[in-house]
Specification:
The complex is a heterodimer of chains A (247) and B (128). Helices cover 23% and strands 17% of the residues of chain A. Chain A is of the alpha+beta class. The N and C termini of chain B lie far apart (70 Å). The chains are: A alpha+beta (247), B mainly alpha (128).
């Protein structure tokens, strides 16, 4: 079976139906083993689902253009990121703004498990914003973060269903949908340079930065031709701002 | 009376002499330390005695002769029981240096089982 990765880089619409089906099949086969992985089982990180780098590298629509780089192989599921996030953003026990998936491959040689941090991808083309009937979910015009205006949210959960990354939950305490905002309200707007999770990560698996700044670490890591960088569920066409690679 | 007591004593003595070695050999079969799960400085790291002692056939004194104390988890009190310490050849890093065994700088999740692995080992079901 041959998959034309050139097509994937450009636009999923140019991929033939059969090709697409084969691609999805691979995704199911390999990533279907995620712990509890139903929603994200199509997150194909095998075989290099490339980010649409052509569009990304030439022009970044926001300034700063916040981005997170997940160096997947460095994650050890210590969950200090989740602890920090919960504390910083007052996430209730039934909610979450970030999770860590576990992939287990019993037949692998040597290391048999891998941890995959997942959070809101702050998509450039966010399906959650498109479906919101009250415009409570919106994309910030300056920094591109997908935010929620709580008083406008009616709790219809259309965005929860629309999100391909399972990144949203209903927060009963504030009676609105809650999600990761790259700690904009709690940290960035107060002068902090990092999100709570990135600051708490002991291994450097989570790197936060500005991909429109050539001096930024995340910019430099992503813009290397010899490094494979991918995004979650590229077939959803969301153009995420959370990138994945192996250090 | 005396004779009976001595008789009883002899019976008990003989039983204990016979049973002693039997019990010893029985406990020998599981005498390695089983799974050790470290939860500091991060949750969590799994060390398998089965893999090291049974599968690889290493003797106790390979490690329990200066590198690790016999009592489990005591090493967690050491300030240099960190990845940096290991890369300097301490603790696990004494062997896991890339030549004797895989480098402690590689394959993170081969030893790190995470909070998920820790919870599973403790029989805690995750909320997800």
């Amino acid at each position: 079976m041959k998959i034309n990765t050139e097509n994937l880089k450009e636009d999923m619409n140019t991929v033939s139906k059969i090709e697409r089906r084969e691609f999805l099949k691979i995704g199911f086969l390999i990533t279907g083993v995620f712990a509890g992985g139903t929603v994200l089982s199509l997150a194909s990180n095998i075989r290099g689902a490339f980010a649409s780098t052509g569009e990304f590298t030439e022009k970044y629509p926001y300034k700063p253009h916040y981005s997170m780089l997940i160096r997947q192989n460095l994650c050890v599921d210590c969950e200090r990121c989740i602890e920090a996030c919960t504390k910083t953003n007052e996430v209730p026990s039934y909610g979450y703004r970030t999770i860590i998936l576990e992939k287990v491959v019993p037949d692998a040689i040597g290391q048999k498990r891998e941890f995959i941090p997942v959070l809101c991808n702050q998509c450039n083309n966010p399906p959650c914003v498109r479906v919101c009937p009250t415009r409570a979910s919106y994309k910030d015009k300056n920094n591109g973060i997908v935010m929620i205006e709580r008083k406008k949210c009616i709790g219809c959960k259309a965005c929860v269903l629309a999100c391909p990354y399972n990144a949203r939950y209903f927060n009963e305490e504030v009676h609105a949908i809650d999600k990761c905002d790259f700690c904009f309200d709690t940290r960035l707007s107060k002068g902090e340079k990092l999100t709570g999770c990135a600051a708490a990560c002991p291994t450097g698996a989570r790197k936060f930065g500005d991909i429109s700044d050539p001096n930024d670490f995340v910019y430099q890591m992503i813009h290397q031709i010899e490094k494979q960088v991918w995004v979650m569920r590229p077939e959803a066409g969301t153009k995420p701002n959370v990138f994945y690679m192996k250090a | 009376m005396d004779k009976k007591n001595i008789f009883l004593f002899l019976i008990i003595l003989s039983i204990s002499c016979l049973a002693g070695p039997l019990m010893l050999s029985a406990s020998d079969e599981v005498s390695h330390g089983g799974d050790i799960i470290y939860d500091k400085p991060v949750k969590a790291v799994l060390f398998s005695h089965k893999v090291h002692a049974e599968d690889l056939g290493m003797g106790c004194d390979s490690c329990h002769d200066g590198i690790f104390q016999m009592a489990s988890l005591t090493v967690q009190k050491e300030a240099d029981f960190t990845m940096e310490g290991l890369s300097k050849g301490k603790y696990c890093g004494a062997c896991h240096d890339g030549s004797m065994a895989f480098d402690s700088d590689s394959q993170c999740a081969r030893c790190h089982i995470g909070v998920k692995g820790y919870d599973r080992a403790q029989g805690i079901k995750s909320g997800e």
